[in-house]
Write a structure and sequence with these properties.
Layout lengths: L6 E3 L4 E3 L31 H15 L5 E4 L10 H10 L3 E5 L6 H4 L5 E3 L3 E5 L5 E4 L15 E4 L12 E3 L10 E2 H9 L18 H5 L4
């Protein structure tokens, strides 16, 4: 079987995940688990407008118009009108690529991404040759795990422990910043060396919205 071709990444390329533009659950004060117990607020904004504006501002502070950025999924609320998606998308700097997440509807795919990817994507650091396997959902083990490849993902909203080999790059985990490959490696270097084949995954209760929503 032919090996999957890797996408070369350079020092200026950036990665981000879980922006969830227009998603009311992100700022809800009424989140509860399946037993009715209150859950902490995900993001401390008073309105969706404030939430979305902050993420756009952070994005454009780090990403120039000609820079390349890879979004690891869940870009927009799946119920957001496509006109609102387009309005936000056009404000975001960069040559934008999307790795499909579970909230990314067919309408999201029509927005004008430079590239759209499904399933794990293989990247290679152009300077060092380090392999990076990216996906929306976290993987317990990934291609190249035994030979030094590392893994980046979103989806878990900082509810899953990261390690020297596997990092949640969703904006809830990294202060809303899109990260370069060097910044990703720096984050990883400060973390414990966990064996994710043996880590017990926390019991994360889905929200009412997600339980009945798109992509579950």
């Amino acid at each position: 079987m032919a090996r999957r071709k890797s996408i070369s990444i350079n020092r200026a390329d950036r990665f981000i995940a879980d922006t969830h533009f227009g998603h009311p659950l992100m700022i809800s004060l009424d989140r509860k688990d399946d037993d009715g117990n209150p859950l902490p607020r995900l993001r401390a904004f008073d309105s969706m407008r404030e939430h979305d504006e902050h993420i756009v501002e952070m994005w454009n502070s780090f990403i120039g118009k000609s820079d390349t950025v890879y979004h690891l999924g869940d870009a927009f609320f799946w119920k957001l009108p496509v006109e609102d998606m387009q309005r936000i998308f056009k404000r975001l700097n960069g040559r934008k690529h999307l790795l499909i997440g579970n909230h990314d509807t067919p309408e999201v795919e029509t927005l004008g991404w430079e590239g759209i990817h499904r399933g794990p994507v293989h990247f290679k650091d152009a300077a060092t040759g380090q392999k990076v396997i990216a996906a929306h959902h976290p993987l317990r083990e990934w291609d190249g795990w035994h030979t030094g490849a590392v893994h980046i993902h979103g989806h878990t909203h900082n509810n899953l422990p990261s390690s020297r080999r596997s990092l949640d790059i969703g904006i809830d985990s990294v202060g809303y910043m899109p990260l370069t490959i060097d910044e990703i490696f720096t984050h990883m270097s400060a973390l414990p060396d966990l064996d994710f084949r043996g880590v017990e995954i926390p019991d994360i209760n889905p929200s009412k919205d997600a339980a009945s929503g798109y992509g579950r």
